[in-house]
């Protein structure tokens, strides 16, 4: 890599080299922020069930949860939604000082969103391809914003961090037989200016040294694009007399993705160096089983278990490439963790008390493991074991029904939907307290408590 002229001007000779080497210790937390936090709720229907949806996967959000489920969406469907998230992080440092952080305000902004579009090719006028369904998803599956007081006890580690990473998911699904479907999709991760500043960013305060005055504002940022692949399978060994699934099994594999990041190192707003690294997003395996103890023309009751393996051990070392040509290895020593989700849905089909509607009540629980050891823990993420409780409801209006009592739910025009639905979900994330000892930045040592409350909604349109 070429030497930065602006760096030579500000920090000549050996001081410049020392400055760059010292800045590596500051760069590593930026990558760690992106690595540790996955944002799992990517649709209100699934979120209301604790994200246990990979074996059900019967609406367009299957693009994210199990793309093989798209073959169950026989026509055209669109799902749009956002999640409103708030909460706090409380820390008691090793010296007894208390501080509190949040997620960019009382409600995180911009809010994480999800958009899915799916179309069966038979419904598009290609009857010979009626076993094929295509889809496109746009979600925010990694990263959130965090911030702390600039005079906090660990301000030399982080005062704010942000990862506005977007995830684009083109998908194709094929129904091999009545009971077996397969799908493949691309996973494209990149940044966009309509989310925050369009780059990963961390800010902190200088502790002094390496030519930087104590109290100076330090910022590291970067952008990049990476791609991987998702493969999904859906098998339905048991059906009822009306051919609806009674038992479904879902399997999903998501490949590891290497996302090159190139950005800047700034001091008091002035660029002093270029920096680059590779952000590694983990491979993941999901196995899921859904059972419908009741599935009649009047009622449906589903119970599902999803078990996910997240391969964070691929984040063993982070090599940081510097604008002076040096490369410095940074051990991370992360570990693989499980994510276990249990969810249920009870659905009333065209009830007498709300004709032309389907009404669903949902609940679920999710356990998420913690991959980050004490040595590399960074307060810019919530790297704590988490327990999530979920509740949700869904309303789908068809036929002669009217959405909100005014809008016809079905029309004769091809441009008017055959059904309109809304799904609502609420989650509380309860994090186990964690005491950090022996961190590479001693100011980070202390006890951490956190909680998150989240409300999500999705609109569904059936064409």
Summarize the amount of helix as a percent range.
Answer: under 10%
Radius of gyration: 24 Å
Determine the mean pLDDT: 85
CATH topology: Porin
Could you explain the architecture of this structure?
- With 463 residues, the protein is mainly beta.
- It has one domain: Outer membrane protein transport protein (OMPP1/FadL/TodX) (Porin, Beta Barrel).
- The chain is 8% helix and 50% strand.
- The protein has four helices and 26 strands.
- Strand 17 and strand 18 form a beta hairpin.
- The longest helix is centred in the first third of the chain and has 24 residues.
- It is elongated.
Give the secondary structure arrangement, pairings included.
Blueprint: H1 5-10, H2 13-36, H3 44-47, H4 62-65, E1 76-93, E2 98-101, E3 113-120, E4 132-139, E5 146-147, E6 160-162, E7 165-177, E8 180-191, E9 200-205, E10 217-223, E11 226-239, E12 245-254, E13 257-267, E14 270-281, E15 284-295, E16 299-310, E17 320-322, E18 327-328, E19 337-349, E20 357-368, E21 386-398, E22 402-403, E23 407-408, E24 419-431, E25 434-436, E26 446-462
């Amino acid at each position: 890599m070429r030497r930065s002229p602006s760096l030579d001007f500000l920090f000549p000779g050996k001081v410049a080299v020392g400055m760059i080497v010292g800045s590596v210790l500051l760069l590593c937390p930026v990558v760690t922020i992106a690595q540790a936090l996955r944002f799992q709720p990517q649709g209100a229907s699934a979120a209301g069930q604790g994200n246990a949806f990979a074996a059900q996967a019967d609406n367009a959000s299957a693009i994210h949860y199990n793309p093989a489920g798209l073959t169950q969406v026989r026509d055209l469907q669109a799902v749009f939604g956002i999640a409103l998230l708030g909460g706090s992080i409380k820390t008691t440092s090793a010296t007894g000082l208390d501080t509190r952080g949040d997620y960019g305000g009382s409600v995180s902004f911009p809010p994480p969103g999800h958009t899915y579009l799916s179309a069966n090719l038979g419904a598009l006028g290609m009857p010979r391809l009626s076993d094929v369904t295509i889809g496109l998803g746009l979600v925010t599956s990694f990263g959130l914003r965090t911030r702390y007081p600039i005079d906090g006890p660990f301000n030399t580690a982080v005062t704010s961090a942000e990862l506005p990473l977007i995830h684009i998911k083109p998908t194709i699904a094929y129904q091999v037989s009545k009971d077996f479907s397969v799908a493949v999709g691309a996973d494209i991760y990149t940044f966009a200016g309509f989310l925050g500043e369009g780059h990963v960013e961390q800010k902190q305060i200088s502790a002094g040294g390496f030519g930087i005055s104590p109290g100076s504002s330090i910022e590291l940022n970067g952008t990049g694009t990476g791609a991987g692949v998702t493969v999904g399978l859906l098998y339905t060994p048991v059906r009822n007399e009306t051919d609806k699934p009674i038992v479904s099994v879902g399997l999903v594999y998501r490949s590891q993705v290497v996302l090159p990041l190139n950005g800047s190192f700034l001091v008091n707003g002035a660029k002093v160096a270029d920096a680059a690294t590779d952000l590694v997003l983990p491979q993941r395996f999901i196995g899921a089983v859904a059972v419908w103890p009741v599935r009649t023309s009047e009622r449906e009751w589903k119970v599902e278990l999803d078990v996910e393996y997240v391969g964070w051990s691929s984040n063993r070392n982070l090599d940081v490439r510097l604008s002076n040509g040096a490369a410095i290895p940074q051990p991370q020593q992360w570990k693989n963790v499980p994510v276990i989700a249990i969810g249920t849905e009870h659905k009333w089909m065209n009830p007498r008390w709300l004709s032309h509607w389907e009404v669903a009540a949902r609940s679920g629980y999710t356990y998420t493991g913690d991959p980050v050891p004490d040595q590399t823990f960074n307060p810019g993420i919530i790297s704590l074991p988490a327990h999530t409780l979920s509740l949700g409801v869904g309303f789908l209006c068809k036929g002669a029904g009217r959405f909100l009592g005014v809008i016809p739910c079905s029309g004769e025009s091809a441009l008017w939907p055959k059904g309109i639905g809304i799904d609502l979900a609420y989650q509380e994330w309860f994090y186990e307290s964690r005491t950090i000892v022996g961190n590479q930045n001693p100011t980070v040592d202390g006890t951490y408590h956190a909680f998150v409350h989240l409300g999500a909604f999705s609109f569904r349109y059936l064409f």
